[in-house]
């Protein structure tokens, strides 16, 4: 009998599949469907804190949604917050922590573009936000990271030290495209595919066991095998977004079946047994793997010029 139990942010989850922040979770009926299909927990869509009266009303609605969500399902509900100032972070976080949420994910979506914004100052702001929020809320917090830090391992360690209980690899930044005919910048929100997973696996493997936090992988998990890879690399939870938007919420049970099938075939009986098993493969810095991408022999046959 296979057990899918895992623990994340100090929470016991019945399944390592966690629904990451997506608009589908705005509806309580969808949260119920996610629980039924085998989600271990759900991260709600981010509340982006504003400053005007409309924003305050939006926050009230967000709180109401949390109350409805936590009443409707048994699985842990994780709120997600983005704020602009130190005061906003702590004010909104403490109000969220008064609800029945099980944890809080900080979506510190900050892209510094000013040439005089130096990396140390930017990182210090991430750490300060984490420290401030962790010091005033009594729910565990996770930070959703992006991959563009100069020294990712170091910022991960600093965030753990500041009170982050978990780190999520990775958020995606807005990457607009340009419409050549109309000469305008256009949104380019595309669902991911499994290709996005490689970057996460690599960093997961490199950081596993070196920073004392729980880990979520978000990005590119589209099959049971993708989820298995995420766990093997060291993640505690495999987060899914695009696949559910593409195939629908019930597809979660297919992902779970695929994982179950793999575990049965390979003789594993618990998620715990597979977590981190291949992390060390990413460690060998001298490995030829690091150079393999540039080795012409690895390329498929190139088309001739004529
Ligand atoms: C339509 C859409 C809306 C999203 N909204 C949020 C959000 O509000 N907050 C957040 O942290 N991530 C948000 N994300 C990012 C997802 O939670 C997830 O991290 C990302 O899509 C990578 O996972 P995937 O490859 O499974 O899609 C959104 C993604 C999509 C596609």
Main sheet attributes: strand count, strand direction, barrel closure: 8 strands, parallel, barrel
Trace the largest sheet across and list its strands. 3-4-5-6-7-8-11-12
Task: Spell out the helices and strands N to C.
Answer: EEEHEHEHEHEHEEEHEHEHHHH
Per DSSP E runs of 2 or more residues, the count of β-strands stands at 12
Strand content: 15-25%
Query: Can you tell me the CATH superfamily?
Result: Aldolase class I
Shape: globular
**Average pLDDT across residues?**
92
The ligands found in this model are: flavin mononucleotide
Number of domains: 1
| Rg on CA atoms, Å | 20 Å
Q: State the end-to-end CA separation.
A: 59 Å
CATH class: Alpha Beta
Keywords summarizing the entry:
306 residues; eight-stranded parallel beta barrel; globular; 11 helices; 12 strands; alpha/beta; TIM Barrel; two-stranded antiparallel ribbon; binds flavin mononucleotide; 17% strand
Explain what the structure shows.
The chain has 306 residues and is an alpha/beta fold. It has one domain: Alpha-Beta Barrel (TIM Barrel). It has helices at residues 28-37, 53-72, 86-97, 119-136, 152-161, 197-207, 224-233, 242-247, 251-266, 271-274, 289-292, and strands at 6-8, 11-13, 17-19, 41-48, 77-82, 103-106, 141-145, 166-169, 177-179, 184-186, 214-218, 237-240. Strand 5, helix 3 (86-97) and strand 6 form a beta-alpha-beta unit. Helix 4 (119-136) runs parallel beside helix 5, helix 6 runs parallel beside helix 7 and helix 7 (224-233) crosses helix 9. The mean pLDDT is 92. The structure holds flavin mononucleotide (FMN). Flavin mononucleotide binds at residues 20-23, 45-46, 80, 107, 144, 171-172, 191-192, 196, 218-221, 240-243, 245.
């Amino acid at each position: 009998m296979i057990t899918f139990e895992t623990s994340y942010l100090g929470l016991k989850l019945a399944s390592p599949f966690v629904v990451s922040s997506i608009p589908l979770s705005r509806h309580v009926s969808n949260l119920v469907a996610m629980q039924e299909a085998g989600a271990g927990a759900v991260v709600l869509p981010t509340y982006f804190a504003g400053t005007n009266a409309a924003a305050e009303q939006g926050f009230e609605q967000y709180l109401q949604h949390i109350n409805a969500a936590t009443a409707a399902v048994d699985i842990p509900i994780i709120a997600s917050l983005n704020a602009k100032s130190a005061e906003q972070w702590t004010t909104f976080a403490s109000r969220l922590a008064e609800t029945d949420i099980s944890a809080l994910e900080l979506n510190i979506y900050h892209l510094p573009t000013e040439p005089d914004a130096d990396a140390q100052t930017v990182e210090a702001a991430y750490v300060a936000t984490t420290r401030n929020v962790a010091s005033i809320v009594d729910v565990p917090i996770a930070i959703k990271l992006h991959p563009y830090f100069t020294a990712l391992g170091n910022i991960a360690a600093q965030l753990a030290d500041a009170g982050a209980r978990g780190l999520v690899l990775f958020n995606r930044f807005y990457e607009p495209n340009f419409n050549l005919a109309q000469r305008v910048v256009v949104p380019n929100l595309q669902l991911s595919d499994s290709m996005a997973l490689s970057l996460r696996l690599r960093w997961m493997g490199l950081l596993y066991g070196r920073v004392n936090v729980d880990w979520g992988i978000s990005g590119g998990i589209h099959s049971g095998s993708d989820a298995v890879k995420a766990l093997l690399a060291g993640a505690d939870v495999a987060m899914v977004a695009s696949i559910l938007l593409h195939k629908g919420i019930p597809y979660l049970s297919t992902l779970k079946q695929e994982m179950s099938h793999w575990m049965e075939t390979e003789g594993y009986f618990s998620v715990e047994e597979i977590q981190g098993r291949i992390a060390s493969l990413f460690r060998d810095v001298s490995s030829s793997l690091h150079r393999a991408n540039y080795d012409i022999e690895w390329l498929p046959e190139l088309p001739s010029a004529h």
